[in-house]
Please model this.
Amino acid sequence: MPGVRVDANVGGSDAGMNANSDPGPALLEVRGLSKSFGTLRALQEVDFTLRAGEIHALLGENGAGKSTLIKAVTGVFPRDAGIVRLGGAEVAPRSAKAAVDAGIATVYQEVNLLLNLSVAQNLYLGRQPTRFGLVREAEMRRCATELLAEFDLHIDVAEPLGNYSVAVQHIAAIARAVDQSARVLILDEPTASLDRHEVEILFAVMRKLALRGIGVVFVTHFLDQVYEICDRITVLRNGRLIGERATAELPRIELIRMMLGRELAETTSERAAAQVRQVGEICARFEGYGKAGYVAPFNLALRRGEVVGLAGLLGSGRTETARLVFGAERADSGSASVDGKPVRLQSPRDAVAHGFGYCPEERKTEGIIADLTVRENIVLALQARRGLAKPLSRSEQEEIAMRFIQLLDIRPPEPERPIGLLSGGNQQKVLLARWLATAPRLLVLDEPTRGIDVGAHAEIIRLIRELCDDGLALLVISSELDEIVTYSDRVIVLRDRAHVDELEGEAIDVSNILAAIALAGTAGAEAGPS
Amino acid sequence: MRGLPPAAITAIVFVVGFALCTVQFPNFASTRVAANLLTDNAFLGIVATGMTFVIISGGIDLSVGSVIGFTTVFVALAIERLGVPPLIAFAAILLLCAAFGAAMGAIIHFFDMPPFIVTLAGMFLARGASFLMSTESTPISAPLYSTVSDFALRLPGGGRLTAIALIMLAVVAAGAVLLHFTRFGANVYALGGSRATTALMGIPVGSMTVRIYMLSSVLAGLAGIVFSFYTAAGYSLSAVGVELDSIAAVVIGGTLLTGGQGSVVGTLLGVLIQGLIQTYINFDGTLSSWWTKIVTGVLLFAFIALQQAMLGIARRAGPRKAGVLTS
Model:
């Protein structure tokens, strides 16, 4: 059953659907696929069509459902609803192995081969040529050498795979999959850790496979690479299909809008209220701050009572900027100062000592400590700042916990409840409370509204505004552009790990941000292809 | 890890050690000493071969010493008290051991339990069961036992290569072939590399785990039979701590304790190094035999440090780029 397609893209170019001049016959058809984890609907009636011999980009921001879609198709997760047809016949693999047997192979970013075995063993593990029960090593090496030669890879296959670069490992993984008669090859962010030359090698392999009639699904967040190699693009957002287009007919701005955007009309009205706000003096300044291969050097000044939004695509350097500011990653260039005095931020400890706080994106793994109570989670940073020699008494802890439970309206208002039992929104509030208890001057929030239901979402945004009115400086990262527009006094736009633009005051709106992301530095240009 | 394989370093240590002993005791270098080294450590060589498979696959088997003890008691009681023909008793105990190992492997796999805990439980179980059967040492006087202990290949120079030494060498040889030249062996290395990845590559991880622990327990049972030949008795307190000796032999033999790398031949050398120290102490006559443990401990430290250093070097060297690439 084809599902209801939510095509939220803007403008009149909707006719791009199936507009490719000559789409081949469908090789892999996904129809109405749904998958929920508890109450979270990770995929809602998603359709996906892959044709033989095409390279098809699967795009979307974090949480869009790309990985869930891949895993539901390849049997890693059972699916709740929907069907998958391969070459017209329905397939429902129960495991990754069953998917490979059916002809759908996946190569993940972390190469799924064994680095301690030889290249040849990796290619033929479980299907080595044998005679009288013994592996025919010489024969296996000959086959392996020939197989890799098809991909223009000439290496000593007797060496352990771990001795070779990630690019070689990826090609070996692809070779193994293709040799096991894969018809569909899914590459999940294969280029994330490759340099330019290695990417070209991989692309040559992908083109060769497409010529053979194999359907290649390419998941990535490097849009340049998408435009370089992909025939078609499917975009997901928040677990829904946004649209499928031929690459040649989809301008970059339109693509980014599909990945990030919402209807522009919705957001403009919300902006006005946030507009007028007094900002104070600069409380933290970073000049030429950066780290080679991580984020290009940037200048950043944060004023009291100001919200600075960081906007950009996944992998553009938003979280990286936050981690540098918080000292979780050491800068190798530039200087930082707090209240005009130069400081060195070598570790999060230094940052906390200067009154910085950081709520990371991965709330479950890097933020909350699920087995501890709400009270214990709230006092954690404050206690760490005071040092273990000066413990907070139980009554002090309880007082602090109750104060923030009331202030932030944490529910249920029970300080002794393990935080793991709270909803996502309330967990986020506890994390906010943890840092607010230390009376910080700068708070960094990475995706504060991720995975939070709509009601709590609005509350978190309200809290962010109120915090600033009290003179706190906030640096907020979000993929939700309308959200950034709503609360930011200034928006810094990132692209390809560099700060490329800065928008202030009236200039802050979704279309300008989109344009800045797409065009990098020419924010004044007209947004949209029309 | 390029350059010298770890097992070669073990071989060098053994040769150097043997040479030092010869310098001090001129009659050390004889076939007699060499043959006795093999005979005295036959049971350890057999059980350590099984342990090599387990450790390379990323596991550990703490139950083997207890299984040896259990086997000696079981065999002694079956032959002496119940009058079971020895060969039938052997077949029965090997089947029992296979079932025991399979059960441990199945629990490890299907309940996703750490091998350390499961085989620790197996260790207590087997030791307790052997005490339950008998707390006394039971001598075995079956004719087969005297036949086996009389049998030996005479070597030039007066050495006697005994039946149990031959059994051990055969087990090591078969183990080496199984590990290095079969699909089973490749899968063992694969498991030690990464269980999840091995499963994704379509290897039946569950049945592999069961078979690996089965192999270890069966070899422990065989080692128990050999031990009963060696002592001509069954005693519930025999082979206490042998699981640790065999782990030490495996690690000294160059196998990574974290799995994924190692060799059976290295393990044999690890066993022989421990035997060499013991022999040296016997020759000296004044040293306490506990020095064996101390030197083994020092060697163990040295080898683990060596492995870490080599891993560090390999990591610093970084991965190599592809050879000839055209795009």
